[in-house]
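Exercise 7 asks you to align residues with tokens for two separate proteins.
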Amino acid sequence: MKNNRRDALRKIALAPALFTAPAILSAATKGPAEPIAQRVQYSVNAYSFNDEFQSGEMDLFDMMEFASDIGLNAVDLTAYYFSSYPSLPKKSEIFALKKRALQLGLNISWTGVRNNFVTADVEARKADREMIKEWLAISSTIGSSILRIFTGRDIPDGYTKEQVKAWLVEEYKLCAQYGAETGVITALQNHNEFLFTADEVIDILEQVDSEWFGLILDISGLRTTDDPYAEAEKLAPYANYWFIKEHVYHNQEKKRTDMAKMAAMIKRHGFRGYVSFESLSDGDPKAVIKEMLDEFKGAFNRG
């Protein structure tokens, strides 16, 4: 699948040249074309403001104002922070958010749901799959290009991990089909809850093997290794979206994220897309997010 994705990106990069034959001839006489510049944009995840949303101090509109004020390009809007949740949002709410994002110069790049496919209850898995299908349609309407999903936790009694992985692959293949119908990528976030290593995540991605199923690479979700950066390096070629949090875990020991290492890794892999920041710390999430953004951009721009 990794090679398929690279081939697709190469074809996209070459597509403009197919319509500009004179440019091709010119390039042939003037030497190789300039490489396409790496393009990274920045977002913030709604969970950063979980306490503020729960207390009523903030809503998604307030989060968008903050994102625009500090120069972010986009916002991640999670399903359970819509005012209608757990009911599906009405079109009026979707359109209001979409319109405000436009006024603030933001994209709505991401939506996310909470699901559990690590359950022996077939009907429960089906219900969550239907919920994902509905949110893929909502994502398409609101203009989001990716929908975050999870695995679920804890192997059910009487089953093996390999059996549960087979359920995941089956469900993810169906979700990818729904994604293809709506034009939204369904993406797994490695969330430290069932798939703990890069190799496990890659195995699932390659078994699903769909351009409409991807990875939201969560640097904080790689907790069972001495070197989470090395684990992230394995996953980097598969990443559709990056999650940067203020801490990583070395064999479950929490340490401050090395933003210079993260910036260098993302740059090294030629990633073009969104890097999203999420704060899980106590204190003012706005201050934490701005600090992370400034530190990462400073390292990334220094080259």
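Second protein for Exercise 7:
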Amino acid sequence: MSQVAEAAVQTKEPLFSPKNRRLLTDPLDDNNPITIQVLGICSALAVTAQVKPSLVMALCVVFVCSVSNLLISLLRKGIPSRIRMIVQLVVIATMVTLVDQVLKAFVYDLSKELSVYIGLIITNCIIMGRLEAFAMGNKPWPAFLDGIGNGLGYGAILILVAVFREVFGAGTFLGYQVIPQFIYDLGYVNNGVMVTPAAAMFLIGIFIWIQRARKPQLVDIS
């Protein structure tokens, strides 16, 4: 029996094995939920006019996605197949409600600025997709890492878009002036297109093009 236990210890997968590390890193690039899976586009258009709300939204999605993945993975063997999506929605809604209440308690002004978009995390296809495609069929730790990875991949694009929109649309970064006044004195004006959701769509399109140009294997040739 001792030999069996020793063999089990030896074959136990490390917490951050190469396979588990890929769950964190792949969504940042080769399997990004926005630029590769083309999910979560609506919020990327709506909340990226400034960096601060985009950062908060990204953190909220990381929390909701990772904790929801963890809970569904823990419950997966006891969830009847016919009601699994209802259970998933209840878990996501609970996490989103918790996030919404925390924001209202500690950063009320930012909560008002994000408005209904926090609540709409419930309908974010990225989260539902990971619960259905990964958490329902994997152990809790990999599911938790997958949730963090996809949340970070989503958040990275969100923040990158917001940086371009805020800097070129308002001349600020996190509310601080970054374009010197003498540039405006020379005739420079902020780009009005950057404050519209259309700018986010253009930027995401450019990011997708750059990513596929850099890695042609990502191009769907079917």
